Amino acid sequence: MNVYGAARVIRIVALAGSLLGLFGCPNPDPNPDPNPPPVSPNSGTPLSIGSTPTCVATDPEGSAVRALKLDNITKDPCQIELSQATLLGSNMDAQFLAQVNFTPIYDGAISRLKQQVGMSPTVNIRVVTDLACFEPAGGGMTGLNIVTVDGKFLDILSEYANYRALAESRIFAESTLASLGQNAAINHIVSYHQLYPCNNAPAAYYPSSLLSTTTASRATQIFDSLAGAIMYHEYGHYWAHALSDSILDQAFFSQFTPYGYINVYPAREENDADFVAGILSHKSGHDLSLSEEMIDLMAFYMYFRQGGVTDIAQVENSYLAQFVQQNPKYSSLAARKSIIQHGYSVFQ
Ligand SMILES: [Zn+2]
Fold first, then answer.
1. Where are the domains of the chain?
2. How many Å lie between the centroid of ligand 1 and the Cα of residue 129?
3. Per-block average pLDDT, block size 10, for the chain (348 residues)?
4. In whole angstroms, what is the distance from residue 248 CA to residue 167 CA?
5. Is there a smaller number of Cβ atoms within 10 Å at the N or the C end of the chain?
6. How far is the CA of 238 from the centre of ligand 1 (A)?
C-alpha cells in the first residue's frame, strides 16, 4: 500500500465511515509525525505572511489576490515549504505517478487554461484517465509537485458543455434532443460515462459532430469555465503549499486517537483551494455561475457513482445535500459555492 493509501486508511477509520474523498480532491495526508517541529501556527496558514512585498500581515486575502494577479504564477511566495513536506511529498508524488494512468486527451485544454490564468507552464498538471479507479476521489488530487484532474469528470464536463452550447442555439432548440431539458441531459451524460470505468469515452448524447463552428466555440468557452473551476481548485492546493499546511495542521489542530489523528479543522485546505479557484476563475474571465455549477456536477457524479442518486435534482434541490456538511473535510456544497463566489468577488 502506498503512502497515500495508508494515510487514507487511517483517516477513513478515524472518521468512522465518513465519505472521505467522495468528491473534490483529498490532498494526500502525510503520516503523522510523532515529534512535530516547534513552529508558529500562523506560519502554516495557506494565505500566510512572509517577507515578500506582496505579503501583508493585516490583509491575507488581499495578499493572496495580489500574488495570484502576477504573471507566471507557481506557488504562494508568502509561504515556505516545510522540509518535511518536501521529503514526504517527493516520495508520495513518485508513488502516485507510478500507480495511475494518464490520458493526453485534455493536454490542449490544460495548456489553454494555464494560459488564460497566467500560470507558469512549468506547473505539472496532468489528467488521470479515471481517478476513481485509483483513489476514492472524483475531481482531482494534488501532491507536492504534481497536480492532477480526473479525466472521467472532464469527459462529463465536455459533453455537458456541448449540451449547453447546443441548448443555447436556435437549431438545437427545435430538435427533439432539446425536449429532454437540462436535468435529464445531465442525468443521461453522467449515467453514460459510468459505463466505461477506468477508461475515457467520447461524448455519446451530445457529440462534437452536432456542433457548428460557432457552437463549438461556445462549447469550448463553457467547458473552460467548468473545467477551469476544478483545475484551479487543484492548483489552489499546490499554490497554497497544502502538504505543508497538512503537516502543520496535524501538529497544531489535531487530536490523536487510537485510530490516528483527527483534524479538528479539516475543511480549511479545501476552503482555501475553493477561494483560489474563485480568484482564478475571475482572472481568466470565466463565468462564475458555471464555476459554481461545477461543484454540484462533481457531487452528483460521485453520488451517482457510489449508487443511489440518479437525478441531479436530488443534489440541486436537496436541503441536506446543499446546506449540511456531509464530510468533515469539505464544507457544504452551498458553502463551497459561496467561497468560490467570494474569491471571484475580491479579485479586481
Ligand atoms: Zn481539494
1. 3-33+80-346
2. 18
3. 30 28 39 43 45 65 91 91 92 94 98 98 97 91 96 98 89 64 94 96 94 96 98 97 83 61 70 96 98 98 93 96 90 97 95
4. 48
5. C
6. 10
